[in-house]
Specification:
263 residues; alpha/beta; eight-stranded mixed beta sheet; 13 helices
Length: 263
């Protein structure tokens, strides 16, 4: 896709912007799971998991891959959501990148024992997610980590996610949002990404942009902080300096993008 075509696509919100989705009962039940930790539940007001998963169209019978799950915030929702009729892969750097999910498994085997662990990106001898096996691939606030390593790394990660998906499958991306009029160099250090940059990485891998949602938007976030996105909660990089100010702003402004792998 040319840059001109990309800008036209981004400038047409009426075509792809989504209204508030209906929350399926299965997603609502997973978000309300009693096994979720209280500190994670407290962040629902910033992360809107029910609305986000509904927008991405995640179903309990899907094979779902979460890329770089970190401490397992979404694992606490996706594992019970897919427990009865689906499959959930937690895919990350092998092995330490999956320690958060392993901790959940060791503490609550009944809830998380069926979670499949996979290397991403897989290296020689490591088991990854089989190509063409996933209905949905999700990644939450990770693209900036790949951008730190340069554009080539981000392109490779999107290409890897493309291979995982079945034709017609969905890629859901949530990422800290940098205003389009900012210098793209800020993507290398601030933790924020331009929507156009994420769309460019995805389309270069073969994805088609299918929709955008403002469910995770935060207009109070200017994306221009002393220590980047980590200035805001939950990181509070400045510790007690202006903590009340940053707490009032809340977590970052985020893009929520839905892509599809063409059939």
């Amino acid at each position: 896709m040319t840059r001109h075509a990309l800008l036209l696509l981004l400038a047409a919100p009426a075509m792809i912007a989504a209204s508030a989705p209906r929350i399926p009962a299965a997603i609502a039940a997973a978000v309300a799971a009693p096994t979720r930790t209280a500190t994670n539940v407290a962040r629902d007001r910033y992360r809107h998991p029910a609305e986000t998963l509904a927008f991405f169209g995640v179903k309990p019978t899907d094979t779902v891959v979460e890329i770089w799950p970190g401490g397992g915030w979404y694992t606490e929702i996706l594992a019970p959501l897919t427990a009865r009729g689906g499959t959930y892969y937690a895919a990350g750097p092998w092995e330490k990148g999956l320690n958060g999910v392993r901790n959940l498994q060791s503490g609550h085997a009944g809830t998380y024992g069926k979670v499949r662990l996979a290397a991403f990106p897989p290296e020689a001898g490591q088991a990854g997610v089989p190509d063409g096996s996933a209905d949905v691939v999700l990644t939450f606030r990770n693209v900036h980590n790949w951008r730190f390593g340069g554009a080539d790394r981000a392109r490779a990660m999107f290409a890897g996610m493309f291979r995982m998906l079945k034709p017609g499958g969905t890629l859901g991306v949530v990422e800290h949002r940098l205003p389009e009029n900012r210098d793209a160099a800020a993507e290398e250090k601030s933790g924020y990404m331009k929507t156009s940059s994420v769309v460019a990485f995805a389309t270069a891998a073969g994805f088609k942009l299918a929709g955008r949602s403002e469910v995770n938007a935060n207009p109070r976030d200017t994306a221009n902080w002393p220590d980047g996105v980590w200035t805001l909660p939950p990181s509070y990089a400045l510790k007690d300096v202006d903590r009340a100010k940053y707490a009032a702003i809340g977590e970052s402004d985020r893009m929520t993008l839905k892509f599809v792998k063409p059939r």
